Amino acid sequence: MANVTIGQLTLASSAAAGDFIEMETVAGLSRKIAKSNFIGGTLTGGPTISGAGTLALGANTLTISSGGTLALGGFTLTVPATGTAALKSGTPTAARIASWLDANSVQDGGIAVSDLGRLSLAQTFSALKTFSAGLSFGNETLNVYLESTWIPQLYGSVSTGAISYGTRTGKYTRIGNVIFFHAFIAVTTITGGSGDLRLSLPTTVGMGPFCVAYLNNVDLPGTPVSIFFAPEAGAAHGAFNIMQDNAGSLVVPITNVANGDYVSASGFYFA
After folding, report:
1. 79 pairs with which residues across the strands?
2. Which of 1, 39, 129, 211 has the highest local Cβ count within 10 Å?
3. How far apart are CA 257 and CA 182, in angstroms?
4. CA distance 268 to 229
5. Looking at per-residue confidence, does 13 or 244 come out higher?
6. Angstrom distance (rounded) from CA 227 to CA 232
7. Is the pTM of the predicted complex or chain greater than 0.85?
8. At a CB cut-off of 8 Å and minimum separation 6, what does 223 contact?
9. How far apart are CA 66 and CA 83, in angstroms?
10. Nearest CA to 172 among 152, 150, 154, 193?
11. For residue 6, what are the CA distances in angstroms to 9, 38, 56?
């Protein structure tokens, strides 16, 4: 094989790893080393890798043991005189999405691509983006979601009466313009009151369908076959109504409620 300088050398210039390569020293003397030793050798003394070439290590490790700078293209890795510089954290075989701390720093770890969309994982996210103007779905915008409670009360449409309660429970959820609610009241004592029996609601009613009603021990007028609760449009309350066989519906009056009775309603209405 013809003599070549180190700048002209390629790994393909020798067919066998046991062949020798001639190296010319600064003093003009020549030495020879085995190709296998050259390939497996270690560059020491602060070498520089420059230009637009490619450094391929495969499964091997490049170590800068006493500090220095490795410049590859437009990126520079600076290693301190002592300690190490971490190139990547996490599982090397997992593709990861970086989580940035600021414009120049990547947070340790990241989110594994294989974990995206897996709701079974116990993950915690903080400082999530809020949408003060709501969520737009093209022609509609959802700008209200609320889970809350209210204290329901009973009263008459003409005069409220005096009522003491053993239990009052009211829960509701608002999604957009729809309010889902449930109310339960245990009456301890009741005196006075006149007009229709009304139950307060958490918000003003825009319109609403008939809802489920439960009246325990309450005297019902007429010949009832069913009972329902009707939210009243434009007000924050509803009334209890009964359906009769072959007759019109009737509203339950507050005077039919007695000590120890239970009153409850569940359903939804539109704001």
Report:
1. 68
2. 211
3. 20
4. 11
5. 244
6. 16
7. no
8. 244, 245, 247
9. 9
10. 150
11. 5, 11, 18
Q: Indicate the SS3 state at residue 103.
A: coil
Strands (E), 206-261: 211-216, 224-231, 237-244, 247-251
Q: Is 128:150 a contact under the CB 8 Å cutoff?
A: no
- Return the ∠ at Cα 216 (arms to 212 and 219), rounded to 5°: 105
d(CA 237, CA 152): 9
- Kind of pairing, strands 162-175 and 178-191? antiparallel
The 10s digit of each residue's pLDDT in 157-191 is 999 999 999 999 999 999 999 999 999 999 999 99
State the DSSP string of 113-148.
GGGTT-TTS-----SPPP-TT-EE-SS-EE--EEEE
CA 128, CA 147: separation in Å to the nearest integer?
19
Output 243-247 pairs: Cβ under 8 A, ≥24 positions apart: 247/222, 247/223
Residue extents of the structural domains in the chain:
1-41, 147-270
CA distance linking residue 255 with residue 219, whole number of Å: 9
Instruction: Convert 250-268 to b/e letters by CB count within 10 Å (16 or more is b).
Output: bebbbeebeeebbbbbebb
Q: Calculate ∠ Cα 73-74-77, nearest 5°.
A: 90
Mean of pLDDT over the chain? 75
CA pair distance 94, 114, nearest whole angstrom: 8
Other beta carbons within 10 Å of 134: 13
Mean pLDDT of 118-143: 70
Higher pLDDT, 89 or 222: 222
Range with lowest mean pLDDT among 97-106, 220-229, 232-241: 97-106
